[in-house]
Amino acid sequence: MLAADRRRRILDRVAEQQSIEAQALADELGVSVMTIRRDIKRLEQDGFLRQTYGGATVQLTKSVELAFNSRALHYSAEKRLIGASAAQMIEPGQTIFLGEGTTTAQFAQFLPPHPNLLVITAALSHASLLCSRGIRVIVAGGKLDPNELGMTGPIAEATIQRFFVDVSVLGAAGLDPDIGVTEVDHEVADLHRLMMERSRRVVLLADCSKLGFRAPAVVAPAAKITTLITDDGAPESALASLARDGVEISLVAHKAQVAH
Asked: Within a domain: residue 14?
């Protein structure tokens, strides 16, 4: 079994049982306990799990959608680098819209508590993390998604409409040079579109797997993006097309995957 498939099995089991015991899982998968503990450590570093009880048990740190394939795990390192790069762009005193998503979650992980920084978000998981660091946070109300812990709908939109910010930091399910920014959920798309409209700059965080992909709900044309931060695996043709639309491209060099 490949490492990515093994980690997906771990996440599936945690989603079912809320916690797992390393020895039992090692016996089930026919690998050593040390292999499982390395997998747990990697998943913890990627933000999926919390390691407890001396590494024998893991628990979800937040409710996330676990119905993803091994490709999502494969790009977790790129997402960390993209999030860290975006966090370095934020200046003290700025006001930020922060969209939901796994890559924006990495941005939240690396965002330092700048003086007078204000983050407005509809993602409860992002808000909780930032607030624990002393960053001022305003949470949009609205209908709560039990899996993503994001809020959408008229109440969330009414909150966003009360502000005009320096930067919107958003993720995307897909980014196609012709179609633009897309999302899976139309209500998330509506909220992200409103954030873009009420922001001086739009910073989009998307790993290379998102470029060229078209999700069903359109957020906005690519020309609405100020800066795209992606990894150096992004197709050159797509980057060239986006650049012609006036999008500033920032590439991060992804680290080689660790062999197990």
From this structure: yes
Cα–chain-centroid distance for residue 176?
A: 18
By residue range, what is the domain housing residue 51?
Answer: 3-72
Kindly state whether residues 49 and 111 are assigned to the same domain. Answer: no
Q: The domain that contains 44 carries what CATH number?
A: 1.10.10.10
- Residues in the chain, total: 260
Q: What's the pLDDT tens digit per position in 183-236?
A: 999 999 999 999 999 999 999 999 999 999 999 999 999 999 999 999 999 999
CA atoms within 13 A on the CB side of 55: 11
Give the N- to C-terminal CA distance of the chain in Å, as an integer. Answer: 11
Residue 20: how many CB atoms within 10 A of its CB? 21
Per the model's pLDDT, the better-predicted residue between 4 and 251 turns out to be 251
Q: Assess whether 35 and 84 both reside in one domain.
A: no
Q: What is the C-alpha to C-alpha distance for residues 113 and 5, in angstroms, rounded to an integer?
A: 36
Q: Are the C-beta atoms of residues 149 and 123 closer than 8 Å to each other? A: yes
In the three-class reduction of DSSP (H, G, I as helix; E, B as strand; rest coil), residue 97 is classed as: strand
pLDDT band at residue 47 using 50, 70 and 90 as cut-offs: low
Which CATH number fits the domain that encloses residue 220? 3.40.50.1360
DSSP letters along 132-196, please?
A: HTT-EEEE--SEEPTTT-BEESHHHHHHHTT--EEEEEE--SEEETTTEEEESSHHHHHHHHHHH
CA triple 173-177-179, angle to 5 deg: 65
